[in-house]
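Morning, I've got a small favour to ask if you have a moment. I've been staring at a protein lately and its backbone has me curious. You're getting the sequence in one-letter code plus the fold written as tokens. I've dropped the whole record in just underneath, so have a look:
=====
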Amino acid sequence: MKNQLSAAVPGVFNNGLSLQQLVNRFVSSSQEMAFRNNVIVVNEVPGDLIITADENKVTPVIDELLTAVVLNAKNSSIHVSADRYSDIVILNIQDRNNNNGYALAFSIMSVEQQAIAAGGSLSIDGKQKKVTTISFSFPIYLQQTS
């Protein structure tokens, strides 16, 4: 069954999920919203970054964060990058022409509990600056749920 799922969903591998492909799916599905706001989303996530975290917990957080940033951005470029540190992934979403960091911070507050449920945490840097970065750190490995 898992092999069938892997073949059916791009970016899903037997040993995990490609974070780059996950971001690509969002970019593809959000083109109209980005066009409306004159926003370009640049995926800088390394292609070899595979996560085995609980996809049902991590994916909605990433989707909600990206949606919030694109909805709050105007005439901007949004750069998505990620780094792996041992067993932690840090996903950075950077709005390089932020007009209202407080509105963006308010928009992501609702996602914080989902991030915690995924075993991760959220932070926002530069609310009062043109360049604002939202960071979502989460464990790369599958979490045991009870």
Remarks:
- Residues 2-139 form a domain with the Heat Shock Protein 90 fold (CATH 3.30.565.10).
- Confidence is low (pLDDT under 50) at residues 1-13.
- The radius of gyration is 15 Å.
- The chain has six helices and eight strands.
